[in-house]
Specification:
Elements (H helix, E strand, L loop, with lengths): L2 H14 L9 E6 L3 E13 H11 L2 E10 L4 E9 L7 E7 L4 E10 L2 H15 L3 E6 L2 H7 L2
């Protein structure tokens, strides 16, 4: 993973998503070669619906899914949004709430290649469509079309 791509997100993220991405709240950067994960703590918990609105409105992100889990051990909501590859940016944002439906942490994936990003999104979508109520989801055909 190039440090340049991570630095670009660290610069534009707080500007585009000020309620969700605070440069002072970056907890960690984990580099896995083909991608890196930036973990941001939120200074103040945010309702998941507000976070989804911010993602769509302020950073041209597409919502991949929004799912509510009802398992005995995990209650809460999960969401994922990603940047449109034609924007020249390769980001995926994941978040999950507790039972209170408030977000406290955002995970930002920064990718090195479109192929790796698409496969990660396909896997993420498939994993979150079972075990809960799907509030919204992108069709796989639409997701793949975004990468053509």
């Amino acid at each position: 993973m190039t440090a340049q791509q991570i630095d670009i997100f660290r610069t534009i993220g707080p500007t585009m998503l000020p309620r969700l991405i605070d440069a002072n709240e970056l907890e960690s950067i984990d580099d896995y070669g083909d991608y890196a994960i930036l973990t941001y703590n939120l200074a103040k918990p945010v309702p998941i619906k507000d976070a989804l609105d911010d993602m769509e409105d302020n950073m041209d992100l597409n919502i991949l899914y929004h799912v509510e889990s009802f398992s005995a051990t995990k209650r809460g909501e999960h969401c994922c949004a990603y940047s449109v590859p034609t924007s020249g940016r390769m980001y995926k944002l994941n978040a999950q709430t507790g039972a209170d439906k408030m977000l406290e942490t955002i995970y930002v994936y920064v990718f090195d290649s479109l192929e790796v990003m698409l496969e990660a999104l396909k896997t993420d979508l498939a994993q979150h469509l079972t075990g809960g109520v799907v509030i919204t989801k992108m069709e796989m055909s639409r997701l793949v079309a975004d990468f053509m």
